[in-house]
Design goal:
81% of the residues lie in helices and 2% in strands. It is built from 3 helices and 2 strands; from the N terminus they run αββαα. The protein has helices at residues 2-97, 120-134, 143-166; strands spanning 102-103, 106-107. Helix 2 (120-134) runs antiparallel to helix 3 (143-166). The longest helix has 96 residues, at 2-97. It starts with a helix and ends with a helix.
């Protein structure tokens, strides 16, 4: 009976060792799975990171291009405004020397803004450009100047319409 007890104890110890070995193997298997999952997640993270860095770089490049365009347009508008102011001063001086300067049968203060305009299409384009510069909502806007521009525009628009009908 002693031998049976010893055998039983050995079997129990072997079973306990096997259980412990199985538990350790299961833990190792789970750790290996977790390590693989971690490596996969790490690769995905670095891939997303590289993609975001590329995207950010592209966004930065596009922003710089847009900024350059805006700066160029701002400088262009500032130069156009200076040119228009200089032309306005020339016309004002000219008007001082001449008692009245007729503009197709009517006197107008805003005729200088449309000098060189010879058809309705260029008239509309010049009018829109002038609105961008002198609209009162703009930082450099001027209500009085815009009123002169509107008055001259209406006169010229009527003249070009009348010419079109006459043809």
């Amino acid at each position: 009976m002693r031998q049976a007890e010893e055998t039983s104890e050995l079997i129990q110890e072997q079973a306990a060792e096997e259980l412990q070995t199985n538990t350790l193997m299961e833990k190792q298997r789970r750790l290996e799975e977790e390590r693989r999952d971690f490596e996969r997640e790490k690769k995905e993270f670095y891939f997303r990171k590289r993609m975001e860095e590329r995207h950010l770089g592209e966004e930065k490049r596009l922003f710089q291009l847009k900024w350059k365009v805006l700066e160029g347009e701002l400088l262009k508008l500032a130069k156009e405004k200076q040119d228009m102011e200089a032309e306005k001063e020339r016309y004002d001086r000219r008007r001082e020397y001449c008692n009245s300067y007729t503009f197709s049968g009517s006197t107008g203060e805003g005729e200088m803004f449309f000098s060189g305009v010879n058809n309705e299409l260029t008239l509309k384009k010049r009018y829109k450009d002038l609105l961008k510069i002198y609209h009162p909502d703009n930082l450099s806007g001027d209500t009085r100047t815009l009123q002169m521009i509107n008055k001259a525009y209406e006169i010229l628009k009527k003249q070009f319409s009348a010419q079109a009908v006459a043809k």
